[in-house]
Amino acid sequence: MAYTLDVGFFNTFIISGRNAATSGDVHEQGNFHFEESRIRGEFNGTNVDYGAKAYQVDLEYGTRIRENALIYSGIFNSKTKVNNTNQFPIGSEITKAVDIAHGSIQKLHAEDSDLIILQENKVSKSLIDKDAIYTAEGTPIQSQSNVVIGQNVPYQGKFGISKNPESFAVAGGRKYFVDQSRGVVMRLSRDGLTPISMYGMKDWFRDALSSSSLTKILGAYDEVKDHYIVSLHGDNIDTEMATTNSSNSSTQSDVTTYSTLAFNESVKGWVSFYTYKPSWGTSLKGKFYTFDTLNLYEHYSTSVARNNFYGATYADPSYVRIIQNDKPSSIKTFLTVNYEGSDNWSLESAETETITNSSDIDNKEEAYKIPKEGVTIVDSNGLDINIGFKRKEGKYYEALKNKNNNKFKDDTYFSNTGLTGYHVNMKFQYWEANEDENANKAELFAVSNQVVGSS
After folding, report:
1. Furthest-apart CA pair in the chain: how many Å?
2. 0.90 surpassed by pTM
3. 317 vs 312: CA distance, rounded Å
4. What are the tens digits of pLDDT across the range 302-325?
C-alpha cells in the first residue's frame, strides 16, 4: 500500500527504502536512504532528477581553511541598488592566493589602487581592478581588466607582520608594524621596507620581542606629535623602566609588565618611553585617543591636571632623562650643560657610565645638582652667590662640577669642573617636590653640552 512519507531534509529525495510493517492505517517507517538533489547541497544549485546518474565520491568534502588565499563576492551597485555581495559563483575566478611558504595572511590594507597583503613572513601588494602585462624587456604595464585582485608584487626583504596584526598603524603613505619573529619594528613607505628599530634600539627590541611572556604588541599613530606608538604587553618587558610612586593607585604601577615607546620620523629615532599602558589607540581629527580597557582617554587635553594618566595623578615631579652620546667611541669631558625651554628646570643628576680599570676601581663620575635659575646661597662674606642655571640670550647654562672620588676628611668633595666618560646621563626636573604639580605646562626644547676630547 502506498503512503506519504514526510522528509525532514531539504534538497533531498529518496533513493531507496523499506517499509518495516503495516498495520491497518498505521505505517511504521523502516530504513530509507536519502541523497541530496543538488550538488553539494548548494543553495539554488543545479537540481538532478530521478534516473540513471553518475556518482563521484568526494573524500575531502567539508570546510577548508586556506590561510594564504582571498575570496571576494559580487559587488554592490549603489546607483542601481543591485546587491550581489551574497553571491560567490564558483564558476568565476573569485579567489587569489599568495605563496603559502610565507605563512598565513594576517592583515590587509587598501591604499589607492593597491591592496597591501601582510603575511607572517612577507609583505606584498596586489593591483585592484587592473592587471599587469609585461613587455619583452620585462617592464610591467598596468592595464584595466575585469579582474578584481590582479598581479601580486612582493616587496624586497624577508620581513612580515608575524602574528601581530594589532601592531599595524598608518600615517599618510607610511605603514608601521612589528615583526616579532625577527625582533624588528618595520616601516613600509615609497622606498620599501625599512627596519626602524635599527635607529638606536636594535638590541632593546631584539631582547624584548624575544620574550616568551610577550602577549600583545599594540601599534597606533599619534598625529598630534607625529609619533608611531608601540606598546609591548607581557611580563618583565623592560626592568629598567622608571617605576611609579607607591602612592599611585593606578594600575600603571605594574610597569614591568609593559613598555610603551614612540618613534619620530623627523629625528629618525625613538624619542621617549611613556608610563601609560593602552589597550588600543587611534588619531581622529587632529587628536590622539587611547583606550584603557573600556575607558576612552584624550591625550594632551588641557581640561585635566598635569601628570595625570588614565585617571591617576602621579605624585612625583615631572622629569626628563637625557643621554648625551655624541661620538660614542671617544672618551670626552663634558664641561657645561645648556638647555632651551621653560623657566624653572633643574639638573637633578648627571653621571657618566661606570668605567672599571685594571685595578677594579669604579671610575663613574657624578656632578653636583644644578638648581633652577635664581637659587642662591650666602657665602662667608654675606654675599649671595647664584648656584642655579644662568640665563643668557634665551638659553640656560651652567658648568658641570665634578664630585671627585677623593674626599676631604669631612666627607666633602673636591669641585673639579667637567665629567669624563663616553656618555653622560642627565635627569632634568621641572618643579620641586613641594611645588604645585598642576602648574602650567613646561617645555624642554633642546639640551647640549660643551665637550672637549679627553687627554
Report:
1. 131
2. no
3. 14
4. 777 777 788 777 766 778 888 888
